[in-house]
Design a protein that fits this description.
By secondary structure, this protein is an alpha+beta fold. The chain has two domains: 270 residues, no CATH class; 114 residues, Alpha-Beta Plaits, CATH 3.30.70. Helix content is 29%, strand content 26%. It is built from 13 helices and 19 strands. The strands form three sheets. It has a ten-stranded mixed sheet, with helices on both faces. Strands 5, 14, 15, 16, 17 and 18 form a six-stranded antiparallel sheet that branches. Helix 1 runs parallel beside helix 3, helix 3 packs across helix 4 and helix 7 crosses helix 8. It is globular, with a radius of gyration of 25 Å.
Length: 456
């Protein structure tokens, strides 16, 4: 019976390459997919590209993975799919071609997928009456038109599969949906029909369990993080599929854990409705799915069903929202919180006298409520026994000058405020705030194309 094994090599831009390299060298896999793109990563890349047209992709895919083990992967016949192309697919392809040519890898085929970037189609869509409704809050899309950095659709498997059909050794995309990077090779290998919803759903969930890298193998593990062996050598998950079975495991001789609990956490990650998990390729139903431990670091996944894909695609619009500055002062016991709180009041009085017109000011105390906010334990006993407390003041404004007003008022409070203050994190700087406008577009607004570049 045919079996295809595919590994998850990266969970985000900046992830460690160690597990991917170990998997390529020691794992029994035919494919590896690497996910580099969080929602705002494309905006960061777009901003980089404005300053330097050669940037805008994830260069560490080439410098930290291909240069280390790309030749070995090619020799073993392991094919790699990745969305490392970001906002500059051609730049990423050129970097890969230069590497492969330098290695004299004649015949190496670089596949790349275009079509996710639809910024130039916005005027026509608006003219046709598309309103770009915001998923998160009310707002008029016209208000951000002159502030947009990037407009990228979450495309599905089709372009990736098209490259694999042309025998690509590596496939580069922009904003492909994370799970599509994994489902495309599986559909290609097993020959699933475009409307074989149950199998497509299995492929998507295989990708979903792998797309966050170490998070599916004991990283960021809430259930029992102390039980994860060799976290310093964390291995990433591998999905093994046949026509009727799916199991998740990992490469030999590496850390991490593959168990029901670790996979349950990843299984439900970012899934709003378990009966209707919408992706570009299929509407997935995991409401009756099963996870069963069948061996050491091996879990069988079953009960996944699929329904027809949606008529729309998710659209990621990144735009300039305004400016922020973040300042911090630390205080030590005794009365750490009381001193930090009083210091915050002093700063706000100064800002009022200076006429600062901020759109938002957020004050929190690191070590107390900066993460838990309104549900933090603020009991008298807790406050009294704090060993230390860091005052954090964040100011947001659409006017850059308003954010800057607070900066020179922070460091003087080391000597001009409550006792024991210590300047923390260095002098603040005004930073740009990039925001996400999450919306949808008609599927037919996107034209996906597959391309091949062969090293001669």
């Amino acid at each position: 019976m045919k079996k295809i094994a595919i590994g998850g090599g990266q969970g985000f831009w900046g992830d460690s390459p160690d597990a991917a390299l170990h998997m390529l060298r020691h794992g029994d896999i035919q494919y590896m997919s690497c996910d580099y793109l969080a929602e705002l990563t494309l905006s960061i890349m777009a901003k980089q590209q404005v300053k330097d047209p050669s940037k805008g992709f994830a260069p560490d895919f080439v410098s930290r993975i291909l240069k280390e083990a790309g030749r070995e992967a090619w020799q073993k016949g392991i094919r790699i799919c990745t969305n490392a192309g970001g906002m500059n697919i051609s730049g990423c392809v050129d970097a890969i071609h230069d590497w492969a040519a330098g290695e004299k890898m004649k015949g190496y085929k670089i596949g790349y997928v275009t079509g996710d970037n639809i910024k130039d189609k916005i005027p026509k869509l608006l003219k046709d009456g598309w309103t770009f409704p915001n998923f998160d809050y009310d707002g008029d899309f016209h208000d951000i038109l002159d502030k947009i950095y990037n407009v990228n659709a979450y495309i599905g498997h089709e372009g990736i599969e098209g490259c694999l059909e042309q025998e690509a050794d590596v496939v580069i995309t922009g904003r492909a949906a994370d799970s599509a990077l994994f489902m495309a090779p599986l559909k290609h290998e097993f020959g699933w029909a475009a409307d074989d919803w149950d199998n497509l759903a299995r492929g998507i969930m295989a990708g979903h369990l792998l797309e966050c890298g170490g998070q599916g193998a004991g990283g960021n593990y809430m259930y029992d993080w102390r039980s994860v062996p060799r976290m310093d050598e964390l291995g990433f998950p591998i999905a093994e599929l046949t026509e009727d079975r799916m199991e998740i495991t990992k490469a030999p001789d590496c850390g991490g854990i593959i168990c029901e609990q670790s996979l349950k956490e990843q299984f439900l990650y970012e899934v709003l409705d378990p009966a209707n998990y919408l992706t570009p390729d299929v509407n997935v139903d995991i409401s009756h799915a099963t996870l069963t431990q069948v061996g050491d670091n091996r879990v069988r996944v079953g009960g996944i069903k699929g329904k027809p894909k949606p008529d729309t695609l998710k659209l990621c619009v990144g735009y300039h929202k305004g400016w922020k500055t973040v300042s911090m002062l630390s205080f030590a016991w005794p009365e750490a919180y009381e001193k930090a709180k009083y210091c915050g009041e002093v700063i706000m009085k100064k800002m009022k006298r200076l006429g600062m017109r901020a759109d938002d000011v957020h004050i929190s105390y690191i070590g107390l409520n900066s993460l838990h906010l309104g549900v933090a334990d603020m009991s008298e006993e807790t406050l009294k026994n704090l060993n230390e407390c860091v005052l954090r003041i964040a100011v947001f404004s659409e006017d850059k000058k308003e954010c800057a007003k607070i900066i020179p008022e922070i460091s003087p409070l080391q000597l001009n405020g409550p006792p024991g203050a210590s300047f923390f994190g260095g002098r603040a700087h005004v930073q740009e705030v990039m925001a996400l406008w999450p919306t949808i577009i008609p599927r037919d607004a996107v034209k996906v194309e597959s391309h091949i570049l062969e090293v001669k």
